Design the sequence.
């Protein structure tokens, strides 16, 4: 039966007009359609990012290969030549080359490890965001192993039953770390305030500020169990500086801290004439705050 | 509106182009996705589904397989951009989802005001050096607005005399004429040179407003201007709106007053609606309720096509040398037949094909400007399953769902969807209004997104290249 009678008698052959056909009424109202969407969209495997060589990547790779490969070939030839002169010269040259290579390799290894430790933070965060308990647990355990304050938490982490629980467990340790980062920030702020207040040129200020900033970021990273090398520091710095989204949120806290810091009697004497110093100090405080946020294994909020 | 006439607009374009370029260099791209659709086309539901499903995809749910395939599992997280200092309401996904999931469920009401939301997609970089540079973000800028307002865009280029002539000509055509009879009689009886008498203006306005309402609600017409008259927005009706078309050439105080109001209205819409939101965008989704237009009859169907063409003509698709110079322009446009769950699976291709014909003019305009275009059939929220009904003793493919009004289960046979604009004989079976369906069972928090049909392919076509 149709609840809307067709306005004119439909033609005998198609097309027939659209219709609504009500089904038999049942005692209880029929349940909502259920496409079992919740089950259908559960991830089958943990996502793994794919990596591709970009143009720039190839360029650098090529340069490194050429430079490194040719240098290695050169060195090998040189060693062979030296052996031809005499065994003593040969062995001595080989020793020099080998130690040089070992140093280079050691440096590269540390850089890679530093970078990897930062990627691990990312992994942990995305696991928390996705609600992937197993990965989040594993990452939290690894993190707890590298941070002194969190070491006693390890058994509790192993027993955590939900993401929320895990978050709550890590919270106090993270708060401690944050307080320490803030302290580091205050030290750096006082130092850069003092330096800018007495230094003769703005160019020098900027240099000192940059150096102190990099040091601060590395100190904060070390608090969180990260040992970033050069590459890792760069990556952290970029994240810290470009993450404009967090800045608005942190500004209020920073303002309060700056005011507390600058209300010190002695500093007040300067602050009037050294407004630049106040700005530098405030930036340091913010840097400490944002760097700490960038190193947290648990995403903020 | 040539760019040469508006040097400040040109400067702003250049600044915008430079900013977008700089952002793409440091891996913080911003993309404005303009969702255009006439009233009831399904914009609000589309945005709700898009946001819910992208947020779920950011949590690792596989709600958008085609997009995921393109993103190569590089999608790290998706979050709404933190609120800044915007003076506009934020698009409230959570509230819409909760209403759709509630018992009894409710679809979003007619949109009455602008609202915006920005979505930040965080992605891993593709290159080996990615670790050095950290993640990349793509920010999607989205806007929801009342569909009626879109018809104000074609008004921007016209003065009062031309607008009046074109509007009256349209009102005297076909089925609109019955609805407009009283208004047309009123304006035709006005003496030439009528004075600027407030009561005359108010009466003409009231008649015109009733005409437009009847055209929209009873007859399914869409090319109705001005848009704010049908949907005045949160502030309600203001004297600015009290104008209506007069037979041309018109002289006298009334004509001058109406022309002044028309001009002020057009300028206000240009300043508040076009310039900030539709002057520049990178991607566009044109949503069309093809089935609704088809069922509303021949006049309404053609009216929809005309409205879409007029809107497209008022937008800038780029491709000119000025656009090239300022670095603005549209990259991709997708034409979308919404509510595809109103037809069974095997008719959805026909729906897309029919849409292709309906939007031939806008599509031609976009392609001419060098824009990549595509045509899709989409159900933002899938509310039906395919079924078979028996009509006049013959089995036909139909869809089955629960009716919103009484919760009863019903099969709907949507008719045969023609592949191209149908011949006159097709319209013989009269008008039909598709019933509203209940949304399916949903998680009120939207943790796993919402069931859809084809949203992933649409998004892949629209933003797949920046992921
Ligand atoms: N079955 C089904 N119905 C839909 C879908 N999308 C929209 N609808 C129906 O279309 C109606 C209008 O959708 P809206 O998204 O509110 O339309 P809009 O374009 O925002 O309209 P305005 O706010 O008036 O401009 C909804 O109330 C639903 O009944 C869909 O994917 N499937
Ligand atoms: Mg809406």
Sequence:
């Amino acid at each position: 039966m149709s609840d809307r009678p067709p306005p004119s008698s439909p033609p005998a052959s198609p097309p027939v007009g659209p219709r609504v056909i009500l089904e038999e009424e049942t005692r209880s109202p029929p349940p909502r359609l259920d496409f079992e969407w919740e089950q259908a969209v559960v991830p089958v495997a943990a996502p793994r990012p794919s990596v591709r060589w970009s143009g720039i990547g190839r360029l650098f790779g090529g340069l490194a290969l050429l430079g490194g490969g040719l240098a290695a070939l050169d060195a090998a030839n040189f060693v062979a030549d030296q052996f031809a002169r005499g065994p003593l010269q040969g062995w001595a040259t080989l020793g020099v080359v080998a130690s040089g290579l070992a140093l280079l390799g050691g440096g590269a290894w540390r850089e890679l490890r530093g970078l990897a430790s930062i990627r691990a933070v990312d992994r942990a965060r995305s696991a928390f965001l996705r609600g992937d308990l197993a990965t989040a647990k594993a990452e939290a355990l690894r993190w707890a192993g590298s941070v002194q304050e969190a070491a006693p938490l390890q058994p509790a982490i192993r027993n955590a039953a939900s993401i929320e629980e895990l978050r709550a467990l890590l919270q106090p340790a993270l708060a401690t770390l944050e307080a320490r980062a803030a302290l580091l920030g205050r030290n750096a702020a006082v130092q850069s305030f003092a330096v800018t207040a007495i230094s003769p040129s703005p160019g020098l200020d900027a240099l000192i500020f940059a150096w102190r900033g990099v040091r601060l970021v590395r100190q904060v990273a070390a608090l969180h169990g990260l040992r970033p090398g050069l590459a890792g520091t760069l990556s952290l710095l970029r994240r810290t500086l470009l993450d404009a989204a967090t800045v608005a949120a942190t500004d209020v806290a920073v303002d309060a801290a700056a005011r507390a810091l600058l209300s010190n009697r002695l500093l007040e004497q300067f602050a009037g004439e050294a407004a630049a110093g106040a700005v530098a100090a405030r930036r340091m405080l913010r840097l400490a705050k944002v760097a700490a946020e960038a190193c947290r294994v648990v995403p903020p909020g | 509106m040539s760019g040469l006439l508006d040097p400040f607009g040109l400067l702003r374009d250049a600044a915008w182009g430079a900013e977008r370029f700089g952002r793409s260099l440091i891996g913080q791209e911003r993309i404005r996705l303009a969702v255009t659709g006439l009233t009831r086309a399904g914009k609000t539901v589309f945005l709700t589904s898009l946001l819910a499903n992208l947020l779920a995809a950011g949590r690792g749910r596989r709600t958008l397989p085609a997009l995921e395939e393109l993103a190569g599992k590089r999608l790290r997280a998706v979050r709404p951009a933190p609120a800044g200092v915007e003076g506009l309401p934020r698009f409230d996904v959570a509230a819409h989802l909760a209403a759709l999931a509630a018992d009894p469920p409710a679809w979003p009401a007619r949109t009455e005001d602008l609202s915006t939301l920005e979505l930040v997609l965080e992605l891993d970089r593709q290159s080996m050096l990615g670790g050095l540079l950290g993640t990349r973000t793509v920010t999607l800028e989205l806007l929801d607005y009342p569909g009626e307002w879109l018809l104000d865009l074609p008004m921007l280029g016209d003065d009062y005399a031309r607008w009046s002539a074109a509007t009256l000509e349209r009102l005297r055509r076909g089925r609109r004429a019955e609805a407009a009879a009283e208004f047309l009689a009123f304006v035709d009886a006005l003496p030439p040179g009528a004075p600027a008498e407030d009561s005359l203006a108010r009466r003409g306005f009231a008649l015109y407003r009733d005409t437009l309402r009847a055209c929209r609600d009873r007859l399914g017409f869409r090319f109705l201007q001005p848009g704010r008259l049908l949907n005045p927005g949160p502030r309600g009706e203001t004297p600015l709106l009290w104008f209506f078309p007069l037979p041309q050439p018109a002289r006298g105080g009334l004509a001058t007053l109406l022309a002044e109001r028309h001009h002020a209205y057009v300028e206000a819409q240009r300043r508040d609606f076009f310039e900030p939101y539709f002057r520049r965008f990178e991607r566009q989704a044109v949503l069309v309720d093809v089935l609704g237009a088809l069922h509303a009859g021949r006049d309404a169907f053609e009216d929809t096509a005309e409205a879409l063409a007029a809107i497209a003509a008022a937008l800038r698709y780029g491709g000119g040398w000025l656009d090239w110079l300022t670095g603005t322009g549209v990259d991709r446009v997708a034409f979308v037949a919404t509510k595809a769950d109103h037809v069974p699976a095997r008719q959805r291709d026909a729906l897309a094909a029919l849409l292709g014909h309906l939007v031939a003019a806008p599509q031609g305009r976009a392609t001419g400007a060098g824009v990549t275009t595509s045509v899709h059939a989409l159900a933002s929220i899938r509310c039906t399953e395919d079924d078979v009904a028996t009509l006049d003793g013959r089995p036909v493919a139909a869809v089955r769902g629960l009716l919103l009004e009484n919760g009863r289960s019903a099969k709907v046979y949507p008719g045969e969807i023609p592949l191209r604009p149908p011949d006159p004989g097709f319209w013989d079976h009269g008008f039909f209004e598709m019933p509203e369906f209940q949304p399916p069972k949903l998680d009120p928090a939207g943790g796993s997104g919402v069931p859809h049909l084809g949203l992933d392919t649409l998004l892949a076509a629209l933003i797949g290249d920046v992921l």
